[in-house]
Design brief:
The chain is of the alpha+beta class. The protein contains two helices and three strands; from the N terminus they run ααβββ.
């Protein structure tokens, strides 16, 4: 009957139990590593979404700020002799009956703008000013409000003097990303209208 030397026994392979234990340990380590990578990937997505939201908000604020402060029909800078009691910078804010914003001509036209609240009731996401959809950003939502409260100023308030024409508009743009996280930016637009008759 053959006998095995001690050296031969020392060079024998792994037993089944040792192999199973090694597989279990490696599996646990792999799961831990993959979970850590998953958390890192999720956290890296957030800055990208926030950055895109900020760019969308800045783009919309720039669009609103380029508009005239007063509606053309009651603009005292265009009609110096106009009766100031008729000046109302927001006679009728525009409604999004179509996707085209090219006809909007003053900051107040954007009051209540919501890229998801169009006449068709469909969620469309952001569009260019002429109404072309930005398909890559369809999951984002853009909302705009314009505050032209009488006496609105940067940090201080004037008393509500009768006949005072607003000199400043606060533009607030809120962009909601695909994860439902809102980002809000504020900007101001001055009227550049200086007339003692304005009451302010």
């Amino acid at each position: 009957m053959p006998t095995y030397s001690r050296r031969a026994r020392d060079q024998a392979g792994l037993t089944l139990i040792e192999l199973i234990i090694a597989i279990v340990v490696l599996g646990i380590a792999a799961v831990a590593v993959l979970q850590s990578l998953g958390v890192l990937v999720v956290r890296n997505v957030d800055p990208m979404l926030r950055s895109q939201s900020r760019l969308l908000a800045e783009s919309m604020i720039n669009e609103v700020q380029t508009q005239a402060f007063f509606d053309a029909s009651v603009d005292p800078t265009l009609n110096p002799g106009i009766d100031l009691s008729t000046v109302n910078i927001c006679p009728t804010p525009e409604t999004l009956s179509s996707y085209n914003r090219n006809s909007w001509d003053n900051v107040c036209d954007y009051t209540g703008y919501d890229s998801d609240a169009v006449a068709t009731g469909n969620s469309t996401g952001p569009r260019t000013r002429n109404g072309t959809p930005i398909t890559q950003l369809a999951a984002y939502r853009v909302q705009v409000s314009v505050n032209t409260s009488v006496g609105l100023t940067l940090g201080t308030g004037l008393s509500n003097i009768a006949g005072c024409i607003p000199q400043l508009a606060r533009i607030t743009v809120t962009v909601t990303d695909p994860r439902g996280q809102p980002l809000t930016l504020d900007a101001y637009r001055a009227s550049y209208f200086d007339d003692p008759r304005a009451g302010c």
